[in-house]
Amino acid sequence: MSERLTIAIQKKGRLADESFSLLRKSGLHFTIPRGGLLARVTNMPVDLLLVRDDDIPSFVASSASDIGIVGENVLAEAAHSATSPFDASIALRLGFSRCKLCLAGLENGEIKSINNLENTTIATSYPGILNHFLRENKITASTVEMKGAVELAPSIGIAQSICDLVSSGATLEANGLSAFATIFHSEAVLVGSSRPLSADKQACLDRLVRRFAGVIQSAETKYIMMNAPKAQLAEITRLLPGSDAPTVIPLAGNEDLVAVQAVCTETVFWETLEDLKALGARAILVLPIEKMMS
Ligand code: ATP
Ligand code: ZN
């Protein structure tokens, strides 16, 4: 029997649902137990470890898990705060749970840019990333670590500014704060280590990484079909996003029109369809692609 590859994923939270969804779209069958720590994949030699996101980088680094899915912010924080060499790094960017780590101050306060940070105190849950940023920018400031409710720090006088995760900015606004700098861009990532895996596990991992990459790519990729005037073919081809050589098929009994079909690897916007129509394209269809392997 082959050894089972372990993947650490967030049990509950902002990463959990999309992590489960990526694994399911990649063909893994499993059910999440109510209270348990482990979910067995029934159709591949894979076990899912269901944990808090903060534990994932160290699980991978310490070989408690072979790989993991975690926010790049949490991985970077773990790497910056590690006291000994840290063997966990990005194996694949996964494109979901995008957010950024921003510096923010009170809307009507005195801190409006990083130039105002000198000799002030900044509250954050990410002291590792923040101190790295301060060192790189030669700013002398104190940091105070808070595990949650960081956005309250300026109004209760713990710090003059904060460094916190932002996606829409609504939480900042609700607390009378405004962001003045972004210090880190994050998305969910697959984390691995440099430890060699057994041949079975490595084969399983390679297979999973290929499938994950296919799922991520097919989310944006669309198949586009239309009838187009032969005379406009060059212009029409130029408009197809992320596609260089469409398939062109003659239409029976029609000298002027051809059927054009192409795989578009970038987002197809309504504006593109309107531009195609303006060039004389008709019966334009955009179809989703369920799976792809290139
Ligand atoms: P846990 O209980 O596992 O420790 P948590 O409360 O620390 O969870 P979540 O709030 O679930 O963490 O966020 C997990 C990750 O999701 C963050 O580290 C970040 O990468 C990403 N994330 C955080 N906020 C947002 C957001 N507003 N939009 C999208 N992704 C986000
Ligand atoms: Zn957490």
Give the SSE order as H and E letters.
EHEEHEHEEEHEEHEEHEHEEHE
Beta-strand portion reads: 25-35%
Strand order of the largest sheet: 2-3-1-4-11-5
- And the CATH topology of the largest domain? D-Maltodextrin-Binding Protein, domain 2
Number of domains: 3
Bound molecules: adenosine-5'-triphosphate, zinc ion
Task: Please bin the fraction of helical residues.
Answer: 25-40%
The named CATH superfamily of the largest domain:
Periplasmic binding protein-like II
What is the tally of beta strands?
15
From the structure above, extract its key features:
294 residues; D-Maltodextrin-Binding Protein, domain 2; Alpha-Beta Plaits; 5-stranded mixed beta sheet; alpha/beta; 3 domains; single chain; binds zinc ion; 6-stranded mixed beta sheet; 8 helices
Blueprint of the fold:
Elements: E1 5-10, H1 16-25, E2 38-40, E3 46-51, H2 56-61, E4 67-71, H3 72-81, E5 89-93, E6 99-106, E7 121-124, H4 127-136, E8 142-145, E9 161-166, H5 170-174, E10 177-186, E11 188-192, H6 199-220, E12 222-229, H7 233-239, E13 247-251, E14 254-264, H8 270-278, E15 282-288
Parallel strand pairs: 1-3, 1-4, 7-8, 7-9
Antiparallel strand pairs: 2-3, 4-11, 5-11, 6-9, 6-10, 12-14, 12-15, 13-14
Helix pairs in contact: 3-4
The chain binds adenosine-5'-triphosphate (ATP) and zinc ion.
Can you describe this structure?
It is a single chain. With 294 residues, the protein is an alpha/beta fold. It folds into 3 domains: 5-97 and 188-218, Periplasmic binding protein-like II (D-Maltodextrin-Binding Protein, domain 2, 3-Layer(aba) Sandwich); 99-185, D-Maltodextrin-Binding Protein, domain 2 (3-Layer(aba) Sandwich), CATH 3.40.190.10; 221-288, 2-Layer Sandwich (Alpha-Beta Plaits). 27% of the residues lie in helices and 32% in strands. It contains 8 helices and 15 strands. It has helices at residues 16-25, 56-61, 72-81, 127-136, 170-174, 199-220, 233-239, 270-278; strands spanning 5-10, 38-40, 46-51, 67-71, 89-93, 99-106, 121-124, 142-145, 161-166, 177-186, 188-192, 222-229, 247-251, 254-264, 282-288. The strands form 3 sheets. It has a 6-stranded mixed β-sheet with strand order 2-3-1-4-11-5. Strands 8-7-9-6-10 form a 5-stranded mixed β-sheet. Strand 7, helix 4 (127-136) and strand 8 (142-145) form a beta-alpha-beta unit. Helix 3 (72-81) crosses helix 4. The longest helix is centred in the last third of the chain and has 22 residues, at 199-220. It is flat, with a radius of gyration of 24 Å. The model has no long low-confidence stretch (mean pLDDT 94). It binds adenosine-5'-triphosphate (ATP) and zinc ion.
